[in-house]
Task: inverse folding
């Protein structure tokens, strides 16, 4: 997203709730409202016509709930749930939603939620990166271009790789590096017996796992969530339960 506006879709069956989110969006320069929808059916049609970066999604809607709607989206834009009910927070977490706003929503809380989206998508200032793959040459490392220098990253040092939209954050045992590359591009060149996709936004090193559960994996003091869509693959790879 960087310097471009974040294209937003509001989905809520209550007109007042849609108007509140529209007002909040209008107060933030980097947000652009593309459409407001009163149902999941309307939202589905918008998503097939427009490029949407961020959905503000109600949960309790007639016919199709926000939870059911998001389960059927693949791939899904970033989602912030907006609801009057507290008891769907676990579902939201398992669906990889970036936040969960309880109605009535205050602007300060809305702004905090939007800042989470910015943090997820914004690269470190002044860092320009490219990736060079040496794995096919039986060399267990990749290069990242950082500030005009090619920096060697040994695969054995990588704890996890986190997606930041069109960027990735590579977390190693000693440092963090931001690369302008989608996570799928890195996943395709890493050895499948050493790295495992556990979430839409996370790729982990199997060798550095300290502990794990159906919802979370610990790697050297870092906790990484397990996405709902990846639980079966994680279970098969790691063999729990």
Result:
């Amino acid at each position: 997203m960087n310097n471009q506006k974040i294209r937003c879709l509001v989905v809520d069956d209550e007109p007042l709730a849609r108007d509140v989110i529209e007002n909040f969006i209008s107060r933030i320069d980097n947000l652009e409202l593309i459409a407001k929808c009163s149902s999941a059916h309307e939202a589905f049609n918008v998503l097939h016509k427009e490029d949407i970066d961020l959905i503000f999604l109600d949960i309790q809607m007639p016919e199709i709930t926000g939870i059911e709607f998001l389960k059927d989206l693949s791939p899904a834009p970033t989602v912030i749930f907006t609801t009057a009910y507290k008891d769907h927070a676990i579902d939201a977490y398992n669906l990889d939603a970036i936040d969960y706003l309880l109605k009535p929503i205050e602007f300060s809380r809305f702004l905090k939620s939007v800042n989470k989206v910015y943090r997820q998508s914004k690269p470190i200032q002044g860092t320009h990166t490219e990736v060079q793959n040496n794995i096919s040459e039986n060399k267990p490392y990749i290069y990242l271009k950082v500030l005009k220098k090619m920096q060697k990253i040994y695969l054995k040092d990588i704890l996890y790789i986190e997606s930041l939209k069109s960027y990735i954050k590579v977390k190693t045992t000693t440092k963090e590096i931001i690369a302008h590359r989608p996570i799928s591009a890195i996943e395709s060149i890493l050895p499948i017996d050493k790295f495992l996709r556990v979430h839409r936004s996370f790729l982990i090193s199997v060798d550095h796992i300290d502990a794990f559960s159906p919802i979370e994996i610990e790697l050297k003091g870092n906790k990484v969530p397990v996405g709902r869509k990846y639980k079966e693959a994680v279970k098969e790879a790691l063999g729990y339960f």
